[in-house]
Amino acid sequence: MLRFLRRCLSMAALTIALASSSVMAQTLPTQNWPTRPITLVVPFAAGSASDTVGRILAARLSEVLGQQVVVENIGGAGGMTGTARVANAPPDGYQFVLGSVDTFAMNQSLYKKLPYDAAADCVPVGLVSLIDSFVEQLSQVFKLRVFRVGTIC
User: Fold this and answer.
1) Where would you tag: which of 3, 68, 77, 106 has the fewest CB atoms within 10 A of its CB?
2) pTM, whole model, 2 decimals?
3) Other C-beta atoms within 10 Å of 41: how many?
4) How confident is the model at residue 111 (pLDDT cuts 50, 70, 90)?
């Protein structure tokens, strides 16, 4: 499972690197990117699942890009604080947010006024991971036990 996760994150890092470099190539044709460290903002607390994924992704991105990728945890307000920081940053390709369904979909529906417009201020670069809900995972465990053994122990 860990090997599969690492492979997926490596592919995601490569996708982000290629997509980012092609976007930057269109906007800054004479400049090599990246020329300085990149900031990956995780809009949730340190030690969370998003933080873990962000740190694994940053390590692989650093290898692929040849430039340091710094993870910065800016939690608060359901991910809005960190996401707003990146949304309001200069669009130079040196700040990314590791967003989620919370920061880009749920908050748009839950709050009347946000410090950013997810559709206008942010551009998706790549999909990093998909996580099934806990209920779905638990139901799969029970199904496997019932079909394998015939009874739940």
Assistant:
1) 3
2) 0.67
3) 24
4) confident
